[in-house]
Amino acid sequence: MSQLRNGERIHLVDKKGRQYALTLKAGDQYQLSGHKISHDELIGKPDGSLVTLSGGKTMLALRPTFGEYVLKMPRGAQVLYPKDLALIPMWADVYPGARVFEAGTGSGALTMALLRAVGPRGLVVTYEAREDFARTAMTNIERYMGAAPNLMSFRKNAYEGIDLLDDGVPFDRLVLDLPEPWQVVPHAARVLRSGGVYLSFVPTVPQVQQTVEALERAAVFCMVETFETLLRTWSIQGRSVRPDHRMVAHSGFLTVARKVEAGFWTPAQLSRPTDEAEEIQEAGEDRAS
Ligand SMILES: C[S@@+](CC[C@H](N)C(=O)[O-])C[C@H]1O[C@@H](n2cnc3c(N)ncnc32)[C@H](O)[C@@H]1O
Fold first, then answer.
1. Domain 69-282 is in which class?
2. pTM of this prediction exceeds 0.90
3. Do β-strands 58-62 and 9-13 pair in parallel, antiparallel, or remain unpaired?
4. For 255, which of 20, 77, 94, 226 could close a Cys bridge (C-beta 3.0–4.6 Å)?
């Protein structure tokens, strides 16, 4: 349905592109720098409508995209940026129907990206150590996605262990955004199925080193890769076409590995550099021929 509904989170967007989030509640009034509009005027309007606040200020009323929602939603813990949220389901190869383990839940941004990727036939099991963060996350998730029957949320410390569900079926994918993923790696080695994918996100180089060392020690992980992404937006105004002056220059490093039968590679061979330049060149030659 494209009409804005009572109870839904929407964004009002001004001419400079700034977004202001509000949750629609019949009878309430929204105020922005002295300009007002009643929620009743917004409820029932088509998504993307132009609306007029008191004093003649015009704004767009929009249902936020997932990336927009995540940046404006209430947070306990720091959320992952949309550029990383977009990559993680791809690099962790989260597919419809997958059973995914996640820790920590934080504000729920990554949980939602995983839920979208596994779809209604999949399952996301998420651990969060802090009760208050978990509560914020569940509110954020419900407000954006409604009830999520394919989500199981636990107040648990992932460093102490990961429990399989009662059916004993291992996880297909395991995704971590917490400070010490190396403490989770031994548990990941136990609960991931063979062929499963491990992915963790950490902001600093020492954290990456400790994570990769733990993956090597576990002996059942291979094809370990670490990378970061830089997203540079551009300003395009007439003949002035250039990169924007500001960007998020650093968020964190993603480390990905496959769980396999031990013994194929020695520990020193587990983190093999992939020669992507060569692969890209080959792909280009294929397209050209
Ligand atoms: C950076 S936040 C995760 C943000 C989340 N990915 C998001 O996008 O909203 C890290 C979270 O991990 C939780 N955490 C830290 N150690 C943990 C542990 N041992 N077990 C479970 N959760 C943990 C923290 O409380 C925090 O909420």
1. alpha beta
2. yes
3. antiparallel
4. 226
